[in-house]
Structure formats: C-alpha cells, structure tokens
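Sharing a chain and its predicted structure for anyone who wants a worked example. Both blocks are below, sequence first, tokens second.
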Amino acid sequence: MKTVVVTGAASGIGLSIAKAYINEGAFVYMVDINEEKLKEETRNLENAVAITADVSNYEEIKKVFNRVKEQSGALNILINNAGISKFKSIWEVTVEDWETILHTNLSSVFYCSREAAGLMDQGGAIVNLCSTRAHMSEPDTEGYAASKGGIFALTHSLAVTLSDKEITVNAISPGWIHTGDYEALRQVDHDQHLSNRVGKPEDIARACLFLTDEANNFINGENLVIDGGMTRKMIYEH
C-alpha cells in the first residue's frame, strides 16, 4: 500500500487528488488548515488520516511529517497542493500580505518536499501544484504569480537535487479548474477553451496519478500544463 501526503486536501483540487489515491488503494494523510472541513471530509473515507496544519509554518510542517514517520515509517508520494490567492492592488499590498502568500504557496513546497524526501528511502515522487499564472498574468496578481513562478523553478531544482534518492519531482499548472457548481457555468465559459469545456478537479487528480506512477519515472523535472489549451490560444481584441 502506497503512503501519500496531500496538502490543501479539505476541498477542491486537493480533496479530489486525495480521493483518487484512496480509490487506488493508497493510505493518504490529508493536510489542511481548515480543521472542521477536513474532519468532515475524512469522516467517511477509509485509509485516510486528517492532519490540521498551517503549511506556511515550518514547525507545523515538521509535526506533520513526524506524524507520518511515527505512523507509517516511510512515504512514497507527496502532493504539494496547498495555496492561497489574494489579488490586491500593488499599491495596497502589505508586507504581511506578501509574506503570507509566499510562505503559504512557495516556502511550503520547499519545506514539505525536504521533509518528505527524508522519508523516501526507497525512492518516491513529488508533484507540485503550479499554475498557468507562472507564465501569464492579470493585473494585481504579483504575489500569486511570484509564488507560482517560484514553484516552477523549485520543481526542476528539486528534481536535480533529489535524483540521487530516486525521487522524481514534477509540477502541474492548472488553468481554469472549477471547484463549485459546474452546471452553473455558462456556455461562453466552456467555449473559450480549445477542449470546449472548463476543467474539473478530477482532471488534475488523474494527472497526479500518472506522474507518480513508478512506470512513468522517466518524466522528471517537468511542468505539465492542464488548461484545456488556453495558453496556446492567440487572443486579439477587435
């Protein structure tokens, strides 16, 4: 049985990823800051453990992986999914705003990966949730873009460093992944994608399963864009 850690697992993409691994027979540690939602979701899941933690805090990260070591002894897969998006005018961003988003989105990937790698004595796989916003932007998204760009670079750096331990490190850059009421989307929302639909959390979960399959370990240090083709679409304003 594979042992997996998924951060930001109480809802949305993270929850879908956790359930996908459970359905594949893995034992999953589901980590999130939202204790109430996390316990609600894990209550009816087999082979899942809820761990409440703020991944922007290194001390809390260490406690998570100490728990994994004590209970499971080793780790096979880490999915760094936890993240926040706070879009605010560049003139209004405070030091606290900047540090919160950088520590939550980027620092957590480094620290979780380092702690996880220490428990992957027989090799393993790490997937970092990046974003298409690492490569393209809207106004007032500097903190989020910087954090995701950092994840993009950190992914290939970790892949090089951890290759001696037979650990693959890849990233996934989702585009528009709708985590709310899918039926409420408009046709124009779907039509702007080359795939003619908005993305679903399950699209990302299936990619995680693929990238962490040992048979696919020749994929390493890469960033897989899953956005229905949006970043390949040339858009002119007429």
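Comments welcome. Helices lie at 12-23, 35-42, 58-72, 95-117, 142-161, 187-191, 201-211.
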